[in-house]
Design a protein that fits this description.
By secondary structure, the protein is an alpha+beta fold. It has 10 helices and 14 strands. It has a 5-stranded antiparallel beta sheet with strand order 2-1-5-4-3. A 5-stranded mixed beta sheet has the order 7-9-12-14-13. Strand 10 and strand 11 form a beta hairpin. Helix 7 crosses helix 8. The longest helix is centred in the middle third of the chain and has 46 residues. The radius of gyration is 24 Å and the shape is elongated. The N and C termini lie far apart (63 Å). It holds the Pfam family HATPase_c.
């Protein structure tokens, strides 16, 4: 039996079942066809959409034309996140756009995924209020933490004088970590109102190498770490100590989730076409991706979407502050952090960072 018509019907059903709006855009930047939820989202009929210029799409016309044009010219898929819908369409105030060249005739497939921002903004306000509460507690504890740190550093220096060259690296590591922790404690004293630090060029692999050395020497001694780095990556815009804190938190989290003999892959890569809109409306390119994939059971369903909230933890006795701090630090550096379950098992955390050359 001829499966052609049946396959076409199934493909049409799949397209129309998607939650996004799907547009087929011609070489003249006019809409050739629409699928899925295009009519419902943009509140226009299929007949009125077909043939109209892509930049006439309600609320996102300019951004839609921009990403379609760049995708066609660069012949590569592009993504644009947190695109403002002006004016909003009902309660839809943001959309994520994805453009993908199709064929050789200049046709581009464009999808628009609505995002309702009101709940996100309310949630962010709650997170910032919780962070201020944490800041008050941190200020009180900071003084008490500094005193033992000085003793630890002094003891490590004395030990270093009695050790051979092979083991002296461990005492140097202790001193370096104590100095870093002291800097973090100093910052915690003003956690409730952090200053706007000037971002610096940071070699992300130097950060990750240091973090892995700390992990292997301590909490991850029995784990398998698989670094898969792209050595050609340019410097990111960030702060060295904060990046160390971010990845220490994430890797320690992965070890605790997967167990003492965890298998953890840390990869770096350059991703084209990742853009977000900053709080002041500027477009920010985030091409540097760092992914941490563990061999654990994955993220429980009831915690998805809440892992970066303060005081939310999937660990017995956990404070729920580690990932909240990760989210805050990444955000202050203009990046993003996401998490999900990997198709082959375990959880994967991804951080997107900007290039230093773009931040200058």
């Amino acid at each position: 039996m001829d499966q052609g018509p049946l396959a076409e019907i199934v493909a049409q059903d799949i397209l129309h079942s998607l939650s996004q709006a799907v547009f087929v855009v011609g070489a003249d930047d006019c809409i050739l066809e629409v699928y899925a939820q295009a009519e419902a989202i943009f509140e226009r009929s299929r007949e009125s959409l077909i043939g109209s210029p892509i930049n006439h799409i309600r609320g996102i016309g300019g951004e839609a034309l921009n990403i379609v044009t760049r995708s066609r010219e660069e012949n590569t898929p592009l993504n644009s996140y947190d695109v403002s819908v002006v004016p909003p369409i009902g309660d839809i105030e943001l959309m994520d756009l994805h453009a993908h060249p199709y064929g050789t005739e200049g046709v581009v497939l464009l999808t628009a995924q609505p995002r309702r921002i009101t709940a996100f903004l309310e949630k962010r306000d709650h997170m910032e209020a919780a962070a201020r509460s944490v800041g008050g507690l941190a200020s009180m504890l900071a003084h008490e933490i500094k005193n033992p740190l000085s003793g630890i550093r002094g003891a490590a220096q004395l030990m270093g004088r009695a050790l051979d060259d092979k083991n002296i690296k461990l005492t140097e590591l202790i001193c370096k970590e104590v100095d870093r922790i002291k800097g973090l404690v100093d910052e915690l004293e003003t956690f409730s109102n952090p200053s706007q630090a000037v971002l610096e060029p940071v070699n992300i692999h130097e950060v990750l190498d240091h973090v892995l050395n700390v992990a292997v020497a301590g909490f991850g001694a029995k784990c398998i770490f698989r670094p898969r780095f792209d050595p050609s990556l340019p410097p990111v815009a960030g702060l060295y100590d904060r990046l160390v804190q971010i990845f220490l938190n994430l890797i320690k989290n992965a070890v605790e989730a997967a167990g003492p003999e965890a298998d953890i892959t840390i990869s770096t890569s350059y991703r084209h076409g990742i853009w977000i809109t900053g709080r002041s409306g500027e477009r920010i390119r985030l091409p540097i991706e760092i992914a941490i994939h563990d061999s654990g059971p994955g993220i429980p369903e009831h915690l998805k979407g809440h892992l970066f909230d303060p005081f939310v933890s999937g660990k017995e006795g956990g404070t729920g502050l580690g990932l909240a701090l990760v989210a805050r630090y990444v955000s202050e550096m203009g990046g993003t952090v996401t998490c999900d379950n990997h198709p082959h098992g375990g959880a994967v955390f991804k951080i997107q960072l900007a290039l230093y050359e773009d931040a200058k």
